[in-house]
Design brief:
It is a single chain. By secondary structure, the protein is α/β, with parallel strands linked by helices. It has a domain at 438-563. The protein has helices at 2-18, 26-36, 52-64, 70-93, 97-114, 116-120, 124-142, 149-166, 168-188, 192-219, 223-242, 248-256, 261-269, 281-291, 303-319, 327-344, 351-371, 376-399, 405-452, 495-503, 509-515, 531-538; strands at 22-23, 121-122, 458-461, 484-486, 519-524, 545-553, 556-563. The strands form two sheets. It has a five-stranded mixed sheet with strand order 4-3-5-7-6, with helices on both faces. Strands 1-2 form a two-stranded parallel ribbon. It is globular. The protein starts with a helix and ends with a strand.
Protein backbone atom coordinates (compact mmCIF):
# COMPACT_ATOMS: atom_id res chain seq x y z
CA UNK A 1 0.00 0.00 0.00
CA UNK A 2 2.82 2.42 0.88
CA UNK A 3 4.43 1.99 -2.55
CA UNK A 4 1.09 2.69 -4.27
CA UNK A 5 0.60 5.79 -2.14
CA UNK A 6 4.08 7.08 -3.02
CA UNK A 7 3.51 6.48 -6.76
CA UNK A 8 0.11 8.20 -6.61
CA UNK A 9 1.32 11.24 -4.67
CA UNK A 10 4.39 11.60 -6.88
CA UNK A 11 2.40 11.32 -10.11
CA UNK A 12 -0.21 13.90 -9.13
CA UNK A 13 2.46 16.20 -7.70
CA UNK A 14 4.12 16.25 -11.12
CA UNK A 15 0.80 17.10 -12.78
CA UNK A 16 0.30 19.93 -10.26
CA UNK A 17 3.72 21.34 -11.12
CA UNK A 18 3.08 21.15 -14.87
CA UNK A 19 -0.50 22.45 -15.06
CA UNK A 20 -2.67 25.09 -13.40
CA UNK A 21 -5.93 23.29 -12.71
CA UNK A 22 -9.12 25.09 -13.73
CA UNK A 23 -12.84 24.48 -13.63
CA UNK A 24 -14.16 23.43 -17.00
CA UNK A 25 -17.42 25.41 -16.97
CA UNK A 26 -19.08 28.25 -15.10
CA UNK A 27 -21.54 25.72 -13.62
CA UNK A 28 -18.79 24.50 -11.30
CA UNK A 29 -18.03 28.09 -10.30
CA UNK A 30 -21.67 28.69 -9.40
CA UNK A 31 -21.75 25.54 -7.27
CA UNK A 32 -18.58 26.67 -5.51
CA UNK A 33 -20.08 30.12 -5.00
CA UNK A 34 -23.21 28.63 -3.37
CA UNK A 35 -21.27 26.28 -1.11
CA UNK A 36 -18.74 28.90 0.00
CA UNK A 37 -21.28 31.65 0.66
CA UNK A 38 -19.98 33.90 -2.09
CA UNK A 39 -23.39 33.88 -3.76
CA UNK A 40 -25.86 34.46 -0.95
CA UNK A 41 -23.47 35.70 1.79
CA UNK A 42 -23.90 32.44 3.72
CA UNK A 43 -22.58 28.94 2.91
CA UNK A 44 -25.47 26.83 1.67
CA UNK A 45 -25.90 23.14 0.92
CA UNK A 46 -28.66 23.84 -1.62
CA UNK A 47 -26.51 23.59 -4.74
CA UNK A 48 -29.15 21.57 -6.66
CA UNK A 49 -26.81 19.56 -8.89
CA UNK A 50 -24.69 18.11 -6.10
CA UNK A 51 -26.93 16.03 -3.84
CA UNK A 52 -27.81 17.74 -0.59
CA UNK A 53 -25.90 15.46 1.86
CA UNK A 54 -22.61 16.11 0.04
CA UNK A 55 -23.41 19.80 -0.46
CA UNK A 56 -24.15 20.22 3.24
CA UNK A 57 -20.84 18.63 4.21
CA UNK A 58 -18.87 20.88 1.85
CA UNK A 59 -20.76 24.03 2.88
CA UNK A 60 -20.06 23.15 6.54
CA UNK A 61 -16.34 22.91 5.75
CA UNK A 62 -16.48 26.30 4.01
CA UNK A 63 -18.20 27.77 7.08
CA UNK A 64 -15.51 26.63 9.52
CA UNK A 65 -12.42 27.15 7.30
CA UNK A 66 -13.56 29.54 4.54
CA UNK A 67 -10.12 30.07 3.01
CA UNK A 68 -9.81 26.50 1.72
CA UNK A 69 -11.23 25.71 -1.78
CA UNK A 70 -13.03 22.62 -0.53
CA UNK A 71 -14.98 21.84 -3.69
CA UNK A 72 -11.91 21.76 -5.90
CA UNK A 73 -10.00 19.78 -3.30
CA UNK A 74 -12.82 17.24 -3.13
CA UNK A 75 -12.99 16.85 -6.92
CA UNK A 76 -9.23 16.33 -7.14
CA UNK A 77 -9.39 13.83 -4.28
CA UNK A 78 -11.93 11.77 -6.22
CA UNK A 79 -9.46 11.37 -9.10
CA UNK A 80 -6.51 10.71 -6.81
CA UNK A 81 -8.33 8.15 -4.67
CA UNK A 82 -9.68 6.40 -7.77
CA UNK A 83 -6.19 6.17 -9.26
CA UNK A 84 -4.77 4.87 -5.98
CA UNK A 85 -7.50 2.24 -5.50
CA UNK A 86 -7.06 0.85 -9.01
CA UNK A 87 -3.29 0.78 -8.67
CA UNK A 88 -3.51 -0.87 -5.25
CA UNK A 89 -5.95 -3.45 -6.60
CA UNK A 90 -3.50 -4.30 -9.39
CA UNK A 91 -0.66 -4.65 -6.89
CA UNK A 92 -2.78 -7.07 -4.84
CA UNK A 93 -3.59 -9.15 -7.92
CA UNK A 94 -0.11 -9.18 -9.49
CA UNK A 95 2.48 -10.67 -7.18
CA UNK A 96 5.64 -10.37 -9.26
CA UNK A 97 7.58 -7.10 -9.13
CA UNK A 98 7.83 -7.04 -12.91
CA UNK A 99 4.06 -7.13 -13.38
CA UNK A 100 3.51 -4.58 -10.61
CA UNK A 101 5.90 -2.15 -12.29
CA UNK A 102 4.19 -2.77 -15.62
CA UNK A 103 0.78 -2.21 -13.99
CA UNK A 104 1.93 1.11 -12.50
CA UNK A 105 3.24 2.35 -15.86
CA UNK A 106 -0.01 1.27 -17.57
CA UNK A 107 -2.07 3.17 -14.97
CA UNK A 108 -0.01 6.32 -15.45
CA UNK A 109 -0.07 6.17 -19.25
CA UNK A 110 -3.82 5.39 -19.30
CA UNK A 111 -4.52 8.39 -17.06
CA UNK A 112 -2.43 10.68 -19.27
CA UNK A 113 -4.16 9.35 -22.36
CA UNK A 114 -7.77 9.45 -21.18
CA UNK A 115 -8.17 11.47 -17.98
CA UNK A 116 -5.54 14.21 -17.94
CA UNK A 117 -7.68 16.76 -19.76
CA UNK A 118 -10.74 16.19 -17.58
CA UNK A 119 -8.57 16.37 -14.44
CA UNK A 120 -6.74 19.57 -15.33
CA UNK A 121 -9.99 21.18 -16.54
CA UNK A 122 -12.33 19.60 -14.05
CA UNK A 123 -16.13 19.28 -14.22
CA UNK A 124 -18.41 17.66 -11.68
CA UNK A 125 -20.18 15.47 -14.25
CA UNK A 126 -16.93 13.78 -15.27
CA UNK A 127 -15.82 13.56 -11.63
CA UNK A 128 -18.97 11.55 -10.94
CA UNK A 129 -18.21 9.28 -13.92
CA UNK A 130 -14.63 8.65 -12.74
CA UNK A 131 -15.83 7.88 -9.21
CA UNK A 132 -18.61 5.56 -10.36
CA UNK A 133 -16.41 3.94 -13.01
CA UNK A 134 -13.81 3.11 -10.35
CA UNK A 135 -16.60 1.59 -8.29
CA UNK A 136 -17.52 -0.67 -11.22
CA UNK A 137 -13.86 -1.61 -11.71
CA UNK A 138 -13.75 -2.63 -8.05
CA UNK A 139 -16.96 -4.65 -8.45
CA UNK A 140 -15.63 -6.55 -11.47
CA UNK A 141 -12.36 -7.45 -9.74
CA UNK A 142 -13.73 -8.07 -6.22
CA UNK A 143 -14.11 -11.81 -6.79
CA UNK A 144 -10.44 -12.09 -7.68
CA UNK A 145 -9.46 -11.27 -4.10
CA UNK A 146 -9.33 -13.75 -1.26
CA UNK A 147 -11.04 -11.64 1.39
CA UNK A 148 -14.33 -11.68 3.32
CA UNK A 149 -17.29 -10.63 1.17
CA UNK A 150 -18.11 -7.40 2.98
CA UNK A 151 -14.49 -6.32 2.93
CA UNK A 152 -14.38 -6.85 -0.82
CA UNK A 153 -17.53 -4.96 -1.62
CA UNK A 154 -17.57 -1.99 0.72
CA UNK A 155 -15.14 0.08 -1.39
CA UNK A 156 -17.26 -0.25 -4.53
CA UNK A 157 -20.40 0.57 -2.52
CA UNK A 158 -18.89 3.80 -1.18
CA UNK A 159 -17.63 4.84 -4.62
CA UNK A 160 -21.05 4.28 -6.18
CA UNK A 161 -22.71 6.23 -3.37
CA UNK A 162 -20.36 9.14 -4.00
CA UNK A 163 -21.08 8.95 -7.73
CA UNK A 164 -24.76 9.47 -6.93
CA UNK A 165 -23.96 12.32 -4.53
CA UNK A 166 -21.81 14.14 -7.09
CA UNK A 167 -24.17 13.82 -10.06
CA UNK A 168 -27.38 11.85 -9.87
CA UNK A 169 -27.87 11.52 -13.62
CA UNK A 170 -24.40 10.06 -14.09
CA UNK A 171 -25.22 7.31 -11.61
CA UNK A 172 -28.19 6.31 -13.76
CA UNK A 173 -25.83 6.14 -16.75
CA UNK A 174 -23.87 3.59 -14.73
CA UNK A 175 -26.78 1.25 -14.13
CA UNK A 176 -26.49 -0.69 -17.45
CA UNK A 177 -22.82 -1.37 -16.68
CA UNK A 178 -23.68 -2.35 -13.10
CA UNK A 179 -26.08 -4.91 -14.60
CA UNK A 180 -23.27 -6.21 -16.84
CA UNK A 181 -21.07 -6.54 -13.76
CA UNK A 182 -23.77 -8.45 -11.90
CA UNK A 183 -24.22 -10.79 -14.89
CA UNK A 184 -20.47 -11.50 -14.83
CA UNK A 185 -20.63 -12.07 -11.09
CA UNK A 186 -23.45 -14.59 -11.42
CA UNK A 187 -21.74 -16.30 -14.36
CA UNK A 188 -18.57 -16.75 -12.30
CA UNK A 189 -20.35 -18.27 -9.31
CA UNK A 190 -24.09 -18.99 -9.13
CA UNK A 191 -24.07 -21.11 -6.00
CA UNK A 192 -26.76 -20.47 -3.39
CA UNK A 193 -24.23 -19.05 -0.92
CA UNK A 194 -22.80 -16.67 -3.47
CA UNK A 195 -26.24 -15.50 -4.55
CA UNK A 196 -27.18 -14.71 -0.95
CA UNK A 197 -24.00 -12.69 -0.57
CA UNK A 198 -24.70 -10.87 -3.82
CA UNK A 199 -28.25 -10.03 -2.75
CA UNK A 200 -26.92 -8.71 0.56
CA UNK A 201 -24.50 -6.50 -1.35
CA UNK A 202 -27.29 -5.12 -3.54
CA UNK A 203 -29.48 -4.46 -0.51
CA UNK A 204 -26.68 -2.43 1.11
CA UNK A 205 -25.92 -0.55 -2.12
CA UNK A 206 -29.47 0.36 -3.09
CA UNK A 207 -30.67 0.64 0.51
CA UNK A 208 -28.03 3.31 1.10
CA UNK A 209 -29.01 5.02 -2.15
CA UNK A 210 -32.65 5.12 -1.06
CA UNK A 211 -31.61 6.83 2.18
CA UNK A 212 -29.52 9.39 0.29
CA UNK A 213 -32.34 10.03 -2.17
CA UNK A 214 -34.80 10.44 0.70
CA UNK A 215 -32.56 12.92 2.52
CA UNK A 216 -32.09 14.93 -0.67
CA UNK A 217 -35.82 15.06 -1.40
CA UNK A 218 -36.63 16.00 2.19
CA UNK A 219 -34.20 18.93 2.09
CA UNK A 220 -35.85 20.27 -1.08
CA UNK A 221 -39.41 19.60 0.13
CA UNK A 222 -40.19 23.20 1.10
CA UNK A 223 -42.68 24.91 -1.19
CA UNK A 224 -40.20 27.57 -2.33
CA UNK A 225 -37.69 24.94 -3.43
CA UNK A 226 -40.34 22.76 -5.08
CA UNK A 227 -41.52 25.80 -7.02
CA UNK A 228 -37.97 26.56 -8.06
CA UNK A 229 -37.26 22.98 -9.14
CA UNK A 230 -40.38 22.96 -11.32
CA UNK A 231 -39.31 26.26 -12.86
CA UNK A 232 -35.77 25.01 -13.43
CA UNK A 233 -37.06 21.86 -15.14
CA UNK A 234 -39.13 24.01 -17.49
CA UNK A 235 -36.13 26.31 -18.09
CA UNK A 236 -33.95 23.30 -18.92
CA UNK A 237 -36.56 22.02 -21.38
CA UNK A 238 -36.61 25.35 -23.22
CA UNK A 239 -32.94 26.26 -23.31
CA UNK A 240 -31.30 22.83 -23.46
CA UNK A 241 -33.76 21.02 -25.72
CA UNK A 242 -36.41 23.15 -27.43
CA UNK A 243 -35.09 26.65 -28.00
CA UNK A 244 -37.07 29.80 -28.77
CA UNK A 245 -37.99 30.16 -32.43
CA UNK A 246 -38.77 33.44 -34.19
CA UNK A 247 -40.37 32.27 -37.42
CA UNK A 248 -43.77 33.75 -38.25
CA UNK A 249 -45.75 30.74 -37.04
CA UNK A 250 -43.87 30.61 -33.74
CA UNK A 251 -44.35 34.33 -33.10
CA UNK A 252 -48.05 33.92 -33.76
CA UNK A 253 -48.16 30.97 -31.34
CA UNK A 254 -46.43 33.01 -28.60
CA UNK A 255 -48.91 35.81 -29.16
CA UNK A 256 -51.82 33.37 -28.83
CA UNK A 257 -50.33 32.19 -25.53
CA UNK A 258 -50.37 35.83 -24.32
CA UNK A 259 -46.60 36.06 -24.10
CA UNK A 260 -45.79 39.74 -24.47
CA UNK A 261 -43.16 41.16 -26.79
CA UNK A 262 -41.13 42.33 -23.77
CA UNK A 263 -41.27 38.90 -22.18
CA UNK A 264 -40.22 37.20 -25.40
CA UNK A 265 -37.26 39.55 -25.70
CA UNK A 266 -36.16 38.57 -22.19
CA UNK A 267 -36.56 34.87 -22.93
CA UNK A 268 -34.71 35.15 -26.24
CA UNK A 269 -31.75 36.89 -24.61
CA UNK A 270 -31.89 34.44 -21.67
CA UNK A 271 -32.11 37.35 -19.20
CA UNK A 272 -35.18 35.80 -17.62
CA UNK A 273 -34.60 37.25 -14.17
CA UNK A 274 -35.93 40.50 -15.61
CA UNK A 275 -39.35 38.87 -15.87
CA UNK A 276 -41.60 39.53 -12.86
CA UNK A 277 -42.74 35.89 -13.13
CA UNK A 278 -39.24 34.42 -12.97
CA UNK A 279 -39.35 31.47 -10.61
CA UNK A 280 -43.04 31.43 -9.79
CA UNK A 281 -45.88 29.23 -11.03
CA UNK A 282 -46.87 31.62 -13.80
CA UNK A 283 -43.28 31.79 -15.04
CA UNK A 284 -43.13 27.98 -15.08
CA UNK A 285 -46.33 27.86 -17.14
CA UNK A 286 -44.94 30.40 -19.62
CA UNK A 287 -41.79 28.32 -20.14
CA UNK A 288 -43.88 25.19 -20.54
CA UNK A 289 -45.97 26.94 -23.20
CA UNK A 290 -42.80 27.98 -25.02
CA UNK A 291 -41.53 24.39 -24.87
CA UNK A 292 -44.85 23.14 -26.26
CA UNK A 293 -44.54 25.28 -29.40
CA UNK A 294 -45.84 22.98 -32.17
CA UNK A 295 -43.72 24.78 -34.78
CA UNK A 296 -40.39 23.64 -33.35
CA UNK A 297 -38.61 21.54 -36.02
CA UNK A 298 -38.50 17.86 -35.17
CA UNK A 299 -41.24 17.82 -32.55
CA UNK A 300 -43.58 15.89 -34.83
CA UNK A 301 -41.02 13.21 -35.67
CA UNK A 302 -42.23 9.73 -34.73
CA UNK A 303 -40.35 7.58 -32.23
CA UNK A 304 -39.46 5.13 -35.01
CA UNK A 305 -37.90 7.89 -37.10
CA UNK A 306 -36.12 9.28 -34.04
CA UNK A 307 -34.54 5.89 -33.44
CA UNK A 308 -33.60 5.53 -37.12
CA UNK A 309 -31.95 8.95 -37.03
CA UNK A 310 -30.22 8.08 -33.76
CA UNK A 311 -28.83 4.89 -35.29
CA UNK A 312 -27.36 6.88 -38.18
CA UNK A 313 -25.82 9.43 -35.78
CA UNK A 314 -24.48 6.62 -33.58
CA UNK A 315 -22.76 4.96 -36.54
CA UNK A 316 -21.33 8.26 -37.73
CA UNK A 317 -20.16 9.36 -34.28
CA UNK A 318 -18.60 5.97 -33.52
CA UNK A 319 -16.65 5.54 -36.73
CA UNK A 320 -16.07 8.97 -38.25
CA UNK A 321 -16.39 11.64 -35.58
CA UNK A 322 -13.23 13.31 -34.30
CA UNK A 323 -15.09 14.49 -31.17
CA UNK A 324 -14.91 10.98 -29.69
CA UNK A 325 -11.22 10.47 -30.44
CA UNK A 326 -9.54 8.44 -29.04
CA UNK A 327 -12.31 6.95 -26.92
CA UNK A 328 -14.35 5.43 -29.78
CA UNK A 329 -11.39 3.69 -31.33
CA UNK A 330 -10.09 2.55 -27.96
CA UNK A 331 -13.50 1.06 -27.15
CA UNK A 332 -13.59 -0.80 -30.47
CA UNK A 333 -10.05 -2.06 -29.83
CA UNK A 334 -10.95 -3.20 -26.32
CA UNK A 335 -13.96 -5.16 -27.58
CA UNK A 336 -11.80 -6.83 -30.24
CA UNK A 337 -9.09 -7.68 -27.72
CA UNK A 338 -11.63 -9.11 -25.27
CA UNK A 339 -13.21 -11.12 -28.06
CA UNK A 340 -9.83 -12.60 -28.99
CA UNK A 341 -9.06 -13.46 -25.36
CA UNK A 342 -12.46 -15.16 -24.95
CA UNK A 343 -12.18 -17.16 -28.18
CA UNK A 344 -8.60 -18.23 -27.51
CA UNK A 345 -9.61 -19.51 -24.08
CA UNK A 346 -12.78 -21.11 -25.54
CA UNK A 347 -14.87 -19.41 -22.86
CA UNK A 348 -17.72 -18.77 -25.26
CA UNK A 349 -20.30 -17.92 -22.61
CA UNK A 350 -18.35 -14.74 -21.95
CA UNK A 351 -19.39 -13.45 -25.37
CA UNK A 352 -22.68 -12.72 -23.63
CA UNK A 353 -20.95 -10.19 -21.36
CA UNK A 354 -19.44 -8.45 -24.37
CA UNK A 355 -22.86 -8.29 -26.02
CA UNK A 356 -24.41 -6.92 -22.82
CA UNK A 357 -21.69 -4.28 -22.50
CA UNK A 358 -22.00 -3.27 -26.14
CA UNK A 359 -25.75 -3.15 -25.74
CA UNK A 360 -25.42 -1.04 -22.58
CA UNK A 361 -23.26 1.63 -24.19
CA UNK A 362 -25.32 1.57 -27.41
CA UNK A 363 -28.60 2.01 -25.55
CA UNK A 364 -27.19 5.00 -23.65
CA UNK A 365 -25.93 6.73 -26.79
CA UNK A 366 -29.08 5.96 -28.78
CA UNK A 367 -31.21 7.41 -26.00
CA UNK A 368 -29.14 10.60 -25.95
CA UNK A 369 -29.22 10.93 -29.74
CA UNK A 370 -32.95 10.21 -29.99
CA UNK A 371 -34.42 12.02 -27.01
CA UNK A 372 -31.80 14.14 -25.28
CA UNK A 373 -28.68 16.12 -25.89
CA UNK A 374 -25.10 14.96 -25.80
CA UNK A 375 -22.53 17.55 -24.71
CA UNK A 376 -18.96 16.30 -24.53
CA UNK A 377 -18.99 15.99 -20.74
CA UNK A 378 -21.86 13.46 -20.95
CA UNK A 379 -20.43 11.36 -23.79
CA UNK A 380 -17.00 11.44 -22.14
CA UNK A 381 -18.59 10.14 -18.94
CA UNK A 382 -20.05 7.15 -20.79
CA UNK A 383 -16.72 6.42 -22.47
CA UNK A 384 -14.81 6.53 -19.17
CA UNK A 385 -17.28 4.28 -17.36
CA UNK A 386 -17.23 1.84 -20.26
CA UNK A 387 -13.43 1.86 -20.37
CA UNK A 388 -13.12 1.13 -16.64
CA UNK A 389 -15.62 -1.73 -16.92
CA UNK A 390 -13.79 -3.23 -19.90
CA UNK A 391 -10.40 -2.91 -18.22
CA UNK A 392 -11.76 -4.63 -15.13
CA UNK A 393 -13.29 -7.34 -17.29
CA UNK A 394 -10.02 -7.86 -19.19
CA UNK A 395 -8.23 -8.20 -15.87
CA UNK A 396 -10.84 -10.71 -14.73
CA UNK A 397 -10.43 -12.82 -17.87
CA UNK A 398 -6.64 -12.64 -17.69
CA UNK A 399 -6.35 -13.75 -14.07
CA UNK A 400 -8.96 -16.51 -14.32
CA UNK A 401 -7.43 -18.02 -17.44
CA UNK A 402 -4.66 -20.58 -17.66
CA UNK A 403 -2.35 -18.31 -19.61
CA UNK A 404 1.28 -18.26 -18.55
CA UNK A 405 2.78 -15.05 -17.14
CA UNK A 406 4.71 -14.68 -20.41
CA UNK A 407 1.48 -14.39 -22.42
CA UNK A 408 0.17 -11.87 -19.89
CA UNK A 409 3.32 -9.76 -20.36
CA UNK A 410 2.67 -9.63 -24.11
CA UNK A 411 -0.92 -8.55 -23.57
CA UNK A 412 0.04 -5.93 -20.99
CA UNK A 413 2.87 -4.63 -23.19
CA UNK A 414 0.44 -4.10 -26.08
CA UNK A 415 -1.89 -2.15 -23.80
CA UNK A 416 1.02 -0.07 -22.53
CA UNK A 417 2.15 0.77 -26.06
CA UNK A 418 -1.38 1.83 -27.05
CA UNK A 419 -1.77 4.06 -23.99
CA UNK A 420 1.66 5.60 -24.45
CA UNK A 421 0.81 6.52 -28.05
CA UNK A 422 -2.56 8.00 -27.04
CA UNK A 423 -1.02 9.84 -24.08
CA UNK A 424 1.01 11.98 -26.50
CA UNK A 425 -2.27 13.26 -27.94
CA UNK A 426 -3.81 13.58 -24.46
CA UNK A 427 -0.97 15.77 -23.20
CA UNK A 428 -0.94 17.88 -26.37
CA UNK A 429 -4.71 18.50 -26.29
CA UNK A 430 -4.59 19.38 -22.61
CA UNK A 431 -1.81 21.93 -23.12
CA UNK A 432 -3.73 23.54 -25.99
CA UNK A 433 -7.05 23.62 -24.11
CA UNK A 434 -5.37 25.16 -21.06
CA UNK A 435 -3.82 27.91 -23.15
CA UNK A 436 -7.12 28.75 -24.78
CA UNK A 437 -9.03 28.79 -21.49
CA UNK A 438 -6.36 30.93 -19.82
CA UNK A 439 -6.65 33.40 -22.69
CA UNK A 440 -10.42 33.57 -22.21
CA UNK A 441 -10.07 33.98 -18.45
CA UNK A 442 -7.49 36.75 -18.77
CA UNK A 443 -9.75 38.64 -21.19
CA UNK A 444 -12.84 38.35 -19.00
CA UNK A 445 -11.06 38.82 -15.68
CA UNK A 446 -11.20 42.58 -16.32
CA UNK A 447 -14.93 42.50 -15.59
CA UNK A 448 -14.55 40.72 -12.24
CA UNK A 449 -11.59 42.88 -11.23
CA UNK A 450 -13.62 45.99 -12.01
CA UNK A 451 -16.60 44.83 -9.93
CA UNK A 452 -14.36 43.80 -7.05
CA UNK A 453 -12.68 47.21 -7.05
CA UNK A 454 -16.09 48.94 -6.78
CA UNK A 455 -17.74 47.18 -3.81
CA UNK A 456 -20.09 50.11 -3.29
CA UNK A 457 -21.97 49.16 -6.50
CA UNK A 458 -24.09 46.19 -7.48
CA UNK A 459 -23.86 44.82 -11.02
CA UNK A 460 -26.36 42.94 -13.17
CA UNK A 461 -24.67 40.97 -15.94
CA UNK A 462 -26.13 39.85 -19.21
CA UNK A 463 -25.93 36.04 -19.20
CA UNK A 464 -23.55 35.81 -22.15
CA UNK A 465 -21.16 38.53 -20.97
CA UNK A 466 -18.66 36.16 -19.36
CA UNK A 467 -20.25 32.82 -20.19
CA UNK A 468 -16.92 31.10 -20.94
CA UNK A 469 -15.11 32.43 -17.88
CA UNK A 470 -13.76 29.97 -15.31
CA UNK A 471 -11.27 30.12 -12.47
CA UNK A 472 -8.45 28.11 -11.03
CA UNK A 473 -9.53 25.24 -8.80
CA UNK A 474 -7.23 26.45 -6.03
CA UNK A 475 -7.61 30.21 -6.52
CA UNK A 476 -8.07 32.15 -3.25
CA UNK A 477 -11.72 32.39 -2.25
CA UNK A 478 -13.48 35.78 -2.35
CA UNK A 479 -13.62 37.27 1.13
CA UNK A 480 -16.80 39.24 0.50
CA UNK A 481 -20.13 38.18 -1.06
CA UNK A 482 -20.18 38.69 -4.82
CA UNK A 483 -21.64 42.11 -5.67
CA UNK A 484 -23.08 40.92 -8.98
CA UNK A 485 -25.85 38.75 -10.34
CA UNK A 486 -26.27 37.06 -13.72
CA UNK A 487 -29.69 37.81 -15.19
CA UNK A 488 -30.32 34.21 -16.24
CA UNK A 489 -29.06 30.66 -15.97
CA UNK A 490 -30.03 27.82 -13.68
CA UNK A 491 -30.12 29.96 -10.54
CA UNK A 492 -33.14 31.86 -11.87
CA UNK A 493 -36.00 31.50 -9.39
CA UNK A 494 -33.84 29.97 -6.66
CA UNK A 495 -34.61 30.99 -3.06
CA UNK A 496 -30.89 31.75 -2.80
CA UNK A 497 -31.40 34.62 -5.26
CA UNK A 498 -33.98 36.04 -2.86
CA UNK A 499 -31.45 35.73 -0.03
CA UNK A 500 -28.83 37.51 -2.11
CA UNK A 501 -31.18 40.35 -3.00
CA UNK A 502 -32.16 40.77 0.65
CA UNK A 503 -28.51 40.91 1.70
CA UNK A 504 -27.80 43.72 -0.76
CA UNK A 505 -31.08 45.54 -0.06
CA UNK A 506 -32.65 44.77 -3.45
CA UNK A 507 -36.40 44.18 -3.60
CA UNK A 508 -36.99 43.87 -7.34
CA UNK A 509 -34.34 43.63 -10.04
CA UNK A 510 -36.26 45.92 -12.39
CA UNK A 511 -36.63 48.62 -9.75
CA UNK A 512 -32.95 48.38 -8.83
CA UNK A 513 -31.87 48.82 -12.45
CA UNK A 514 -34.26 51.73 -12.97
CA UNK A 515 -33.91 53.68 -9.76
CA UNK A 516 -31.00 52.54 -7.55
CA UNK A 517 -28.01 54.88 -7.58
CA UNK A 518 -25.51 52.04 -7.24
CA UNK A 519 -27.01 49.51 -9.72
CA UNK A 520 -25.29 49.04 -13.08
CA UNK A 521 -25.77 46.77 -16.09
CA UNK A 522 -22.84 45.07 -17.87
CA UNK A 523 -22.95 43.49 -21.31
CA UNK A 524 -20.41 42.38 -23.90
CA UNK A 525 -20.46 44.51 -27.03
CA UNK A 526 -21.98 42.52 -29.88
CA UNK A 527 -23.17 39.67 -27.65
CA UNK A 528 -26.31 39.28 -25.60
CA UNK A 529 -28.68 42.06 -24.61
CA UNK A 530 -27.99 45.63 -25.69
CA UNK A 531 -28.92 48.72 -23.72
CA UNK A 532 -31.66 49.42 -26.28
CA UNK A 533 -33.17 45.97 -25.72
CA UNK A 534 -32.95 46.43 -21.96
CA UNK A 535 -34.89 49.66 -22.28
CA UNK A 536 -37.58 47.88 -24.31
CA UNK A 537 -37.81 45.09 -21.73
CA UNK A 538 -38.21 47.57 -18.88
CA UNK A 539 -40.60 49.82 -20.79
CA UNK A 540 -38.59 53.02 -20.61
CA UNK A 541 -37.68 55.57 -23.24
CA UNK A 542 -34.64 55.24 -25.46
CA UNK A 543 -31.49 56.63 -23.86
CA UNK A 544 -32.66 55.92 -20.31
CA UNK A 545 -29.48 53.90 -19.75
CA UNK A 546 -26.23 55.73 -20.40
CA UNK A 547 -22.79 54.26 -21.00
CA UNK A 548 -20.68 55.14 -17.95
CA UNK A 549 -17.61 53.01 -18.55
CA UNK A 550 -16.08 50.56 -21.00
CA UNK A 551 -13.59 47.80 -20.34
CA UNK A 552 -11.38 46.09 -22.87
CA UNK A 553 -10.46 42.46 -22.43
CA UNK A 554 -8.66 40.73 -25.28
CA UNK A 555 -10.60 41.51 -28.45
CA UNK A 556 -13.85 42.26 -26.59
CA UNK A 557 -15.36 45.40 -25.16
CA UNK A 558 -17.50 45.20 -22.02
CA UNK A 559 -20.02 48.02 -21.72
CA UNK A 560 -21.25 49.32 -18.35
CA UNK A 561 -24.57 51.18 -18.24
CA UNK A 562 -26.46 53.04 -15.55
CA UNK A 563 -29.90 54.63 -15.42
CA UNK A 564 -29.73 58.41 -15.71
Amino acid sequence: MAICAVITIGFFAVIAMCFDMMYCLNDDLMIQSILSGGFSAKPSGMSVYLSQPLSSLLSFLYSIIPGVPWLGAFFCTCYIVGFFLILYRLFLLFHSKKEQILAAVICISAFLALCLNSYVMIHYTVVAAITGGCGIFMMVTDNLLDKPRFGRRIVSVILLWFCYLIRTKVFFLLIPFILCTLALDVMGDHSKKHMKQLISYLLVLFGGLMILIGVNQFCYSEEAWQQYLAYNDARTEVYDYRGIWTDIDSLQYYQEQKITEEQLLMYQSYNIMLDDNAGNLQGTQILQKIADNPNIPGTQVSIVNRIKNALWIYKDQTIHSEDGYPYNYLAIGMYLLLGIVILRAKRYWHCLILLLSGGARSSLFLYLYAFGRYPERVTLSIYLVEFLFLMGYLLYLTLTSRDSPKKRYVQESILLLVFLLISVNGISVTIQDCREQKSVNEAEDVVYSYMESHPENFYFLDVYTTVYHTRGVFDPMDKEPENYLYLGGWMTGSPLVTMKKEYFGIEEIKDALLYADNALFITRDGTGMTAENLEKCLGVEEGYFQLVDMLQGGNDNFLIYQAQ
